[in-house]
């Protein structure tokens, strides 16, 4: 039984293939297209097919994480209510929604056409139910609360549900525009970042400020009971405009309406909306717990890609009681849709909790060699994995920044050791070099630290969410292993805990590096050019390698270095061991 799960057609589109209750493949369309895409994730679909050697005829069910007609009817109802106060804006957004409906219905028609001659059926699920499924069915919990929040999936901003066994029952939905995620995007725009793209920057900026305006956001978002409800008086008519905050908001905060607000005010805004979201969600979950008598809770939806929010919720609610899936955003609904079809339509028993996200395309050695030869690249080819690791450790100990391309690509927004850029945390000027020559990003954004699972407790207080980099950890008071410059406030660290069972090659590299270094840790960031998705193919990797300030690349077992001295040294070492160049 093969089920193809597809995300909604808006943004961060993805496909996932579930075979007999096990995910065999999953990939985001943007990573394959090398740009942000919408519509049907055609490239992702065909990548999943190639991974398992099938086509449309081999698919039994196609599950889609959107119900376009239901979304349109909800949006039409909202715009009808706002027409009296904002007729022009309502007409404009109403026309856009009609066009979106026509486009999405056409996508469903095309997918139905693909089914011609095969036996598969097409099932559409509510977007937030797919978010809930991506969290609960991939979690280790047999019974839990499920809270989903995003901006407006199918015109719903939040869902409260209970998961038990192979069923999810929705208790309450919160309609758009009563959305914490939407307000967070408005603040992202206000502080000078791109809304719907740079919310992660707002998250990290929040660490640099004080929550001076938290009470304003609480008043703006607090409704009756614990469920968020927007106070419309803080926004422009029809919730429209480049900046949707009204004069009341500016009076309450004391901010100027000038586009160029001060640095201190930017930090305070980011810190305030972060703190308000944390407090409101904590209240909501505690109230939900009391009513349902359940302690454990799963979170999903784009808002929970915010790792500082997840870390705060773990602290407030109990770290072992919380689960966030590897891909909480829109891409993850592809897994959720497939899981719903498996459990709630076919009534199959629960799957195993997810322990690996290496579900994207993988490439054999010959495919890698063909790309290297086509680009006329000089390389060294160690003949064993141990010697490849020795070459990697030699480069890292010399302070080099290394591209690391191994096995199958990761599914989800994080670089988890198969498509990563690595460096020694103790190399001189490592952060400056990464920011200036490779990442080209803001100084306040941290890099992750990867550590083997069994070594983690010696240095960090970390939850299981750090396996997928969905939370942050704290450096233990007695540990002074990391430079102060790599620590966030309150000795927090963006941590990636590496399991030997899920990624033995990267785990072995960390162990080998730790034999000579102060600790078995490497600085880990995503392997991509500035503004692009994570690399997937060997050609993507070569383009990013030659187009950035990377010093070296280890791709499969091939070792490349831009520095002639290091290339010669590695070549000499490998030749002495009887290796090929």
Mean pLDDT: 90
**Fraction in helix:** 25-40%
The radius of gyration over CA amounts to 24 Å
CATH architecture identity of the largest domain: Alpha-Beta Complex
Arrangement of strands in the largest sheet: 17-13-18-12-11-19-20
Strand content: 15-25%
Low-confidence stretches: 576-581
From the helix content, strand content and strand pairing, which structural class follows?
alpha/beta
CATH topology of the largest domain: DHBP synthase
Total separate domains? 3
How many alpha or pi helices? 19
Question: What's the total count of β strands?
Answer: 20
Instruction: Give the overall shape, derived from the CA principal axes.
Output: globular
What is the C-level CATH assignment of the largest domain? Alpha Beta
* End-to-end C-alpha gap: 45 Å
State the gist of this model.
The chain is 39% helix and 17% strand. By secondary structure, it is of the alpha/beta class.
Structure description:
- With 581 residues, the chain is α/β, with parallel strands linked by helices.
- The protein has 3 domains: 2-131, Nucleotidyltransferase, domain 5 (2-Layer Sandwich), CATH 3.30.420; 140-324, 2-Layer Sandwich (Nucleotidyltransferase, domain 5), CATH 3.30.420.40; 365-576, DHBP synthase.
- Helix content is 39%, strand content 17%.
- It has 19 helices and 20 strands.
- The chain has helices at 29-33, 42-52, 68-82, 87-114, 127-136, 180-190, 199-205, 214-221, 247-253, 263-292, 307-317, 333-345, 365-374, 385-397, 430-439, 456-459, 504-514, 538-546, 564-576; strands at 2-6, 14-19, 22-28, 61-64, 121-124, 143-153, 156-164, 167-175, 297-300, 322-323, 402-405, 419-423, 448-452, 460-461, 473-475, 492-493, 495-498, 522-526, 552-555, 558-561.
- The strands form 4 sheets. The protein has a 7-stranded mixed beta sheet, with helices on both faces. A 5-stranded mixed beta sheet has the order 3-2-1-4-5. Strands 8-7-6-9-10 form a 5-stranded mixed beta sheet, with helices on both faces.
- Helix 6 (180-190) packs antiparallel against helix 10 (263-292) and helix 10 crosses helix 11 (307-317).
- The longest helix is centred in the middle third of the chain and has 30 residues, at 263-292.
């Amino acid at each position: 039984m093969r089920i193809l799960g597809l995300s909604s057609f808006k943004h961060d589109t993805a496909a996932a293939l579930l075979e007999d209750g096990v995910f065999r493949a999953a990939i985001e369309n943007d990573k394959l297209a090398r740009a942000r895409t919408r519509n049907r994730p055609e490239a992702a679909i065909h990548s999943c097919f190639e991974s398992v050697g099938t086509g449309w005829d081999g698919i039994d069910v196609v599950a889609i994480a959107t119900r376009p007609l239901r979304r349109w009817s909800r949006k039409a109802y909202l715009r009808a209510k706002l027409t009296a106060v904002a007729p022009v804006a309502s007409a404009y957004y109403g026309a856009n929604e009609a066009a979106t409906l026509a486009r999405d219905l056409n996508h469903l028609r095309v997918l139905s056409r693909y089914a011609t001659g095969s036996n598969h059926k097409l099932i559409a699920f509510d977007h937030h139910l797919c978010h809930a499924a991506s969290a609960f069915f991939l979690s280790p919990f047999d019974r839990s609360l499920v809270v989903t929040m995003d901006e407006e999936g199918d015109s719903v901003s939040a869902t409260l549900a209970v998961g038990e066994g192979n069923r999810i029952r929705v208790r309450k939905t919160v309609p758009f525009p009563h959305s914490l995620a939407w307000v967070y995007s408005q603040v992202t725009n206000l502080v000078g970042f791109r809304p719907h793209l740079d919310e992660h920057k707002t998250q990290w900026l929040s660490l640099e400020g004080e929550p001076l305006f938290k009470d304003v956001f609480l008043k703006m978002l607090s409704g009756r009971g614990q469920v968020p409800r927007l106070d419309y008086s803080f926004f422009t008519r029809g919730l429209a405009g480049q900046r949707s905050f009204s004069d009341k908001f500016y009076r309450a905060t004391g901010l100027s309406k000038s586009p160029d607000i001060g640095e201190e005010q930017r930090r305070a805004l980011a810190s305030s909306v972060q703190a308000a979201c944390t407090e409101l969600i904590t209240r909501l979950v505690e109230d939900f717990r009391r009513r349902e008598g359940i302690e454990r809770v799963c979170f999903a939806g784009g808002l929970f890609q915010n790792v500082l929010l997840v870390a705060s919720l773990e602290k407030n609610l109990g770290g072992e009681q919380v689960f966030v899936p590897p891909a909480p955003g829109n891409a993850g609904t592809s897994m959720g849709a497939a899981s719903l079809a498996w459990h709630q339509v076919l009534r199959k028993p629960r799957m195993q909790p997810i322990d690996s996200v290496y579900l994207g395309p993988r490439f054999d050695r010959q495919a890698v060699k063909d790309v290297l030869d086509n680009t006329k690249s000089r390389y060294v080819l160690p003949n064993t994995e141990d010697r490849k690791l020795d070459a990697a450790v030699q480069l890292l100990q010399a302070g080099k920044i290394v591209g690391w391309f191994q096995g199958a690509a990761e599914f989800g927004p994080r670089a988890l050791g198969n498509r990563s850029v690595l460096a020694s945390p103790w190399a001189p000027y490592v952060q400056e070099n990464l920011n200036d020559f490779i990442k080209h990003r803001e100084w306040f954004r941290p890099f992750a630290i990867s550590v083997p699972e069994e070594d983690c407790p010696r240095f960090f207080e970390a939850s299981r969410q750090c396996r997928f980099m969905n939370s942050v950890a704290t450096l233990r008071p007695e540990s002074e292993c990391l430079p102060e410059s790599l620590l966030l406030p309150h000795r927090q660290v963006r941590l990636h805990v590496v399991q030997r069972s899920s990624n033995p090659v990267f785990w072995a590299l960390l162990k080998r590096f730790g034999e000579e270094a102060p600790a078995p840790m490497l600085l880990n960031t995503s392997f991509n050019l500035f503004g692009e998705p994570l690399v997937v193919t060997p050609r993507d990797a070569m383009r990013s390698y030659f187009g950035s300030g990377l010093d070296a690349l280890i791709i499969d077992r091939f070792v490349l270095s831009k520095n002639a001295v290091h290339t010669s040294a590695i070549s000499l070492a490998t030749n002495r061991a009887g290796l090929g160049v």
